[in-house]
Design a protein that fits this description.
The chain is built from five helices and 15 strands. By secondary structure, it is of the alpha+beta class. The strands form three sheets. Strands 4, 5, 6, 8, 13 and 15 form a six-stranded antiparallel beta sheet that branches. InterPro entries: AsaB-like.
């Protein structure tokens, strides 16, 4: 399908200063800006994945797994605490079976929801992230995300190599011995909450088409309580984008955001408008995990 997504322009100011953006408005601060990078809207072809076996996590940065989970669709809205641990366990089990090279896989998320204790890592902060597209999206003003997180149409990876270390320190306080000196991956598992889903699907970029030396830029994502380091993408006509057409709840899109050494394939991703969509506004759930070798 033909759609569009946002890259970041290679503007002159980024030669002297690091890119940044905020997830809140700064209108109350005189002279402040909420970002110093210029969005670059591009028309792209987003290809439907015909054969999931054609894509491998370690080559393309993403893959597709089929896995049955029992997440209560309504429960994620009524009481996240009552359903999230069971869902995390199911996702971790699916990944352990698919990727036996990992010695340990721990699910977490960093969206602004209520921190909940986890029985594995002591003092672990875990979250269940749900996105429910507002009928006004994409015209929702940035910084006013209403009740639920909205899809992100900017091509990005959730963290950089250094950013992933900061996340682990923040999310697993006092547990540095579990990952220090070890190799690890930061993974996402994304799926719709209802099926079939064709509204604003998640598109992933084949990493073999990305030029790491020229296409990728580090950016500070300034939150209300911390600063994360993420990666954003500059346009390259060689990029190839893919999505799962009519993705079902058992179709798990698994992709790598970062790794401890900055050497592995990862998947830049963005939500894209589907001009042929006939279903209701997108509802999706994603789990972020650290997978330790």
């Amino acid at each position: 399908m033909q759609s569009s997504l946002y890259y970041i322009e290679k503007t002159a100011n980024l030669k002297q200063e690091k890119a940044f953006s905020t997830d809140f408005t700064v209108d109350h601060v005189e002279g402040a800006v909420d970002q110093n990078a210029t969005p670059d809207c591009r028309q792209v072809t987003v290809n439907a994945i015909q054969d999931p076996d054609d894509f491998q996590l370690d080559v393309h940065g993403f893959c597709v797994l089929h896995g049955q989970t029992h997440l209560d669709h309504e429960g994620v809205y009524r009481n996240k605490a009552s359903v999230q641990d069971a869902y995390y366990y199911e996702i971790e089990a699916i990944l352990h079976e698919a990727f036996p090279q990992y010695s340990r896989i721990e699910a977490f998320d960093l969206t602004a929801c209520t921190p909940l204790p986890h029985p594995t890592f002591s003092s672990k902060l875990t979250y269940l992230q749900v996105r429910k597209r507002d009928v006004d999206f994409p015209d929702v003003v940035r910084g006013y995300r209403k009740e639920y997180e909205q899809p992100s149409s900017i091509a990005h990876c959730d963290w950089s190599k250094n950013g992933s270390l900061k996340v682990l320190h923040w999310c697993f306080p006092g547990n540095e011995s579990y990952w220090e000196g070890k190799r690890f991956d930061m993974l996402n598992v994304w799926r719709p909450l209802k099926q079939p889903s064709d509204d604003w699907p998640l598109a992933v970029c084949d990493y073999t088409t990305v030029d790491p030396d020229h296409d990728i830029r580090l950016s500070d994502a300034i939150r209300r309580d911390r600063v994360d380091e993420v990666c954003v993408l500059h346009y390259n006509e060689k990029h190839k984008w893919y999505y799962l057409k009519d993705q079902g709840v058992e179709d798990l899109l698994v992709f790598r955001n970062a790794d401890s050494h900055g050497e592995r394939a990862r998947a830049f991703h963005a939500a894209v408008h589907n001009p042929q969509a006939q279903g209701p506004p997108r509802e999706s759930v994603e789990v972020r995990l650290v997978a330790i070798y």
